[in-house]
Each structure stands twice: as structure tokens, then as C-alpha cells.
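User
New here, explain this?
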Amino acid sequence: MKKRNKRTGSTLIMVSIIVAINLAGINYAQWNDGMRVTSRVSTGTMDAHIVDFKISGDSEGLKGTKGLIGSKDGSDLNIVGTMQEGQKAIVTYGVKNGGTLPVKFGTPKVVEINSLKFDMTSAVKDVDGKTGGNGQGQFEITACEAGDYSFKVELPYSLNVQ
């Protein structure tokens, strides 16, 4: 009879341990499911934009580009007006990086080209490579034929990380 009591006691201890481990696992799973991890990541900002621009005419007696006018919209220029065949205009613009990350400007992209030739070789490439920097660029427009024109110049920029 003593042998049975030893086995019953061992069995009872083993069953108790198994039940206790199962209960601990269930409680851990419930605690883990109810846990909420909240994190917040803050990065810098990119805020490059055109601050000013000027449209000037060629020097061959056409008295400027009285027919061309423009407006700025962030990093875009909208230009409309009338040009004569062979007339040239130079658009000079200033840019500023108001963000906290350094930016690099790409070559301006012209949307809706209509019989115009664009020389973008002196476009701004970067804004001093730092935040809060200023830069200046320009491009030349030549009319291949006389007419009324309306086009948009987009000034793309990207992160300048080195």
C-alpha cells in the first residue's frame, strides 16, 4: 500500500506542475495580446521652393519680353505669353531650402513644350548643400516660331545625403 501512495503523490505533483505551467502560458499569452507598443519617429523636413524669379528679354532690340508673364507655385513656374520667332528670354530664379534636410535640385523639366527651345545648362544644381541655403539658376527660352505660349517649368529636388 505504501508503493501506491508514493506513485499517487508523484503523479499528483507532476499533474500540478503541468497545470501550473499551462496556466502561466495562458496568462502570458493574454498579457502579450493586451500589450500595446507605441513608437514615434521624427525625421527632418524637405521644403525647397522658388523664392523669386525674373523674365528678361534678349539684347537684340526686341525690348524685353513684354508678352511673357509668370507665376510661382512652390517649386514650379507657370509662364504664359506671346513671343516672336527667334525671340529669346532668360528666366532667372532664386531658390531656398526652408526645410531641415539638405536638398539637391535637378534639371528643370518643362511641361507642354510648344515650338520652344530650352537651354537648361545653367540651372541650379544644389542649394549650398545644406539646410537654410539659397541658390540661383537660370534657363534660356528661344521661340522657334511666333505665337502664344503657355507652359509649366517644374524644378525637381531630392535629398542630398553624402
Residues 82 and 145 are 10 Å apart (CA to CA).
